[in-house]
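Ticket opened by: R.M.
Priority: normal
Category: complex prediction / small molecule

The reporter submitted a protein together with cytidine-5'-diphosphate and asked that the result be attached to this ticket for the collaborator who will pick it up next week. Submitted input follows.
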Amino acid sequence: MSKKGLIIAIDGPAAVGKSTIGKLIAQKLGFLYIDTGAIYRAITWKVLKNNLSVNNEDLISMLVSKTQIKINRVSSNSLKDYYHIFIDGKDVTEEIRDPKIDQNVSQIAKLPKIRKQLISLQKKLAKEGNIIMEGRDIGSVILPYADIKLYFIASEEERTKRRYKELTAKGYKIDYKEVKKQIMKRDEIDSQRKYAPLTKAENAVLIDSTEKTIEEVKNEILKIIKKYKENGKK
Ligand code: CDP
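Result attached by the on-call engineer:
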């Protein structure tokens, strides 16, 4: 374990359940939880609000340098409020889940300048330890020294079902096929970009959640953490 407390990195493709499980484990252990996807989503929210082109790297980079991003735990008891993200003081936790953000976020997240700007923020957030950070490049680029690295997978169909259910429950009128298309498209852009692509770090443990309940995945990970704490390794 690192001197400053446990560091857990979770990576994996879109809608694989990283946030659901990550938050549950963080709450159980009293850890800080950082969803780095929310940071890219918040930037995308601001880019769209300012009517900037998602390809204009220089303008977006300028916008990022003038943007304040804050992450706060609003309540430790409620999972929904375990993690809120603020951009220039505005709480955008809910708004960044809009399908419009899904359609644009990967275009912005692939821009090297933007990723470089956001790396130091993410590294800084992890420095105290006792943290779960999730995203696409956490185990590989942001926290390569993480104590425990997990890589989540689930079938395309299962991931589409989960995201479709989530979005329709929130009242979005969206087509199942469209949800699937967006997930696949994002995965393709995220894994094929040159700079810090979605990848399984060499020493990450693979977690396939396709046929497992949330409780089962949670327990599987708690076991990995317990073993790590007992042996000092996975
Ligand atoms: O929740 P979901 O799995 O749909 O996505 P997310 O984790 O909120 O991430 C949204 C998008 O941000 C991803 O599709 C990536 O384009 C980008 N992202 C990234 O590039 N690097 C990260 N570490 C996290 C997210």
